[in-house]
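Before a colleague's protein record goes any further, I have to sign it off. I want your independent view on whether this chain really folds as the tokens say. The record follows directly below this note.
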Amino acid sequence: MKEIRILLLLSLLCASVDFVFSQVDYDHQWPAFRGPCGRGYVDGGVTPEKWNVDSNINIKWKTAIPGLAHSCPAIWNDYLIVTSAVNLKTEESLKVGLYGDIDEADDLQEHEFRVYCLDRNTGKIIWERVAHKGIPKSKRHTKSSQANCTPATDGHYIVALFGSEGLYCYDFQGNPVWSKDLGILNPGPYTDPGVEWGYASSPVIYNGTIILQCDIPAGPFIAALDLATGKEKWRTSRGDEVSTWCTPAICLHKGKTFIIANGYRHICGYEFETGKVIWTMSGGGDAPAPTPVVANGYIYLNSAHGKSSPIFVVNPDATGDITLAPDSTRSRYILWNVKRGGAYMQTPLIYKGFLYNLQVNGMLTCFDAFTGEVKYKESLKEAFSASGVAADGKLYFSSEEGNVYVIKAGPEFKLIAKNSMKDVCMATPAISGNAIFFRTQHFLIAVEQHK
């Protein structure tokens, strides 16, 4: 009982830091990467446990999308937005599975970089636009694509980022509003200069502003752009940060708005209005991809590559350099820390008081989100790149081979079902109402319990 009282007190004390967008029905909107506020879950619907693509059981619709893309669906009301890069000369190659090659794909053919708007209820394509046409200006990894960034929307504008091919803004009728050339965005391993793996940080929209994290080999920066015009409001250097593939996050705390950026040398909190650095720390994995998550009144960060694979839980009151001493697991601004065990590709899923950390090799660890206590470790025995999502008391984890593991949320591991999408699945699913939307290599598939 004492532990329960402490956890309840912590929840109440920290409630001020969580996102508050009460004017939006976020049980039905999934406006950006990992949905509302980047949290990875919605509640309020009744989502399915089992389905079958071949026999059409609980399959609402299935729509083919040309090209190769790992970008995820974004949803606003009855509109579903995705992007794709279509090679006009040859079939796109994709190499999945567990391997450590740094190889680049042969992508030096003309592409169309497209934006698609579909009816979320029927899967019918409402409109498609070619944002850019040409040979890609940057290369990609054999496991990557030329359209990795998830589009974002605020219900008025849609923004789609194609890395070195630029940033594009549309209205919901598909009319171009503006576009912006951001230069060459070509992240790659800092240990192998010149190797390019493809840009993947998705845009984030808050309060009429787009936030972009561009950790590239030469001149990494984070910037704010006006959503209506594309005009740059501010740009802050990321110093000597190496390439990352992290999407930034927004944090509201004590009446102020902050931007949180994951990284290796520079994990930082920035002022939303000015881009000024508030706090910084180092010690992450050296090729980070996970997005920061704000939950339970704290900031959750993880990464895993090279010598380090930590999980950090940061108090948003942090200021200055909060880097942990090598032999420490907590400090004034660090609630708890795991030295090894973080995820390389996946953003952690924090849901109903627990943190679910899934590694690329399929090892799933459940932590108490307040204390860091390990509740269970189970191997799903497959390769995973997509981040987990949750709804209706259930967790959904999609393997690269297209198997979706449905797991009961809570401190004990219970596999509810394993469903095959019959296609490669690299993208994180979206959830809206009672439906889950999967972006596979060749299709968009809506899964919903048949009534």
